Amino acid sequence: MTRLAAIAVAVLSPLAVGTAVSGAGATTSSRLLVTGREYSLILSRARIDPGPSIVQLQNSGEDAHNLRMRRVGGTRIFGAPKTEPGELSEFDAHLRRRSTYVLYCSVADHRALGMEAHLRVRRH
Question: By mean pLDDT, which of 4-8, 14-18, 120-124 is the weakest?
Answer without folding.
Answer: 14-18
